[in-house]
Amino acid sequence: LRQWKTYEFSEGRNVTMSSYPGFVHSTDDFMVNGHGVFMMSTSIPDYSPPTMQALKPTGVPGFVQLLIATYLTTTPQEYADVWTKDNNGALMNQAMIVDLRRAQAALDAGMPLPPHTFVMCENYPTVYECGDMTWWLNSGKPWISFDVAYFNSTRGVSGSNIRQVERRNMGVCARPSSVAAPLERTMQYATDVTSMFYAMRHNNYPHDPLLVIPGCNQSQSRWVQFNCSDEPALHTTPVLTFGARQDLAPLHGHYGTASEQFLTALFGSVDGKATSARMLADPANMTVILQNGPTSVQHPPFSFSEFYASHPAINDTTPRRGIPDRLDFSPVVVRPLSGFSAQQRACAPGGGSVA
C-alpha cells in the first residue's frame, strides 16, 4: 500500500514523494522539492563485515538526512553538502540528485547539460563520496545503478573490488556488472516517458535470452561456475530485469548453491514510476506516472493466494492489512493533492494524495 505525499512549506520548499501510510519520510527514496531538485536512491551492498563494525552511534539517521536535504536545498551540489554532514553511513546507499530546471533548460536549448546537473553520492560507515556525473548523461548513456557501488573509495570499503567477492556473487558487484546486459538493452527502447514507464515494467522471462543467470554456462561469460539445464526457465531468471518478479522463478534449479538466490521467493519490483524534467517543472503540478504492485505487462498479476497454493512449502505468515489478494492495479497519473477536487485543492493548506 503506497501513498503519494506532498508537504507544503513556505519559500517554495515543498517536498513531494512516494511513501507509505503512517510514514513521515519516504522510505521509497523517490522525492522532489519545490526548487526542482529531484532525488532517488538505492541500497548498495556491503561485502566486508569490518565495515559495519566501524559504525558509530553518532550523526543523523539516513532517512532524516534524505528528507531534510530535500527540504533545504536548491541545487544538487547543495544537496550533496547537506547529505554528507553528520553522515554516519549506516544507510549504505547511492543517492542520485538531478537539477530538473537546469536539465530542461539545456534540453530546450539543444545544449549539453551544464556541470552539476546530475550529482551522485555514495556512503558506507567509514566513507562517503559525491561526484558530478553530468558527463555520463552528456555522453548519451543512461545512468543505471545496478545496486552496485561506483566510486573507487566506496567500492574499496565495501569489498566490491575483491576478486573472490566478485566471483562469489557471479560478477553482480563488478563494474561493469554481470547483470548489465538486459537492462542496457531495454533502455535503448526508452525514447519518451511512456516507453520509459514500460521499460521499468519489462519482464519477458523465460523468453528473454539476456536474462541468463551469470553463473550458468549459457551466459558464456567469465563468471560461469556450473552447468545449467538447457531449459530457458531454469538457466534464465525473472530477477535480472527492471520489472523483477522472483515469484515466477522455479522452486529448484539444476545448478549449484551459488544460484539459490534465484529460486522462487516473494521478492522483486513492487511498483513502477516514470516522469521527466518537464513533468516535474511546475511545483504545483508535479506529475508522475506510477503503478503499484509487481509488473503484469507480460505476466498475470501477482496473487497471494495463488502463490501460496502453488508453493505449500512456503509459509504465509505476513499480515497484509489493507492489501488485496490480487495486485492488479492500473497505472495512474498523480500530482500534488491529485486526490482532491479543484475546490479542495484551492483551499488546502497542505496534504497528500493516495495512489
Automatic annotation (TrEMBL):
Superkingdom as given in the UniProt entry: Eukaryota
Q: Which GO terms describe its cellular component?
A: extracellular region
Query: Which family does the similarity line name?
Result: Belongs to the phospholipase B-like family.
Q: Name one GO molecular function term.
A: phospholipase activity
* Signal peptide bounds: none
Instruction: Name the InterPro entries on file.
Output: PLipase_B-like
Q: What does the UniProt function comment say about this protein?
A: Putative phospholipase.
Q: Where in this chain does the entry annotate a coiled-coil region?
A: none
Alphabetically sorted, this entry's keywords are: Glycoprotein, Hydrolase, Lipid degradation, Lipid metabolism, Signal
This protein is called Phospholipase B-like
Q: Which organism is it from?
A: Neobodo designis (Flagellated protozoan)
What EC number is given for this enzyme?
A: 3.1.1.-
* An annotated GO BP: phospholipid catabolic process
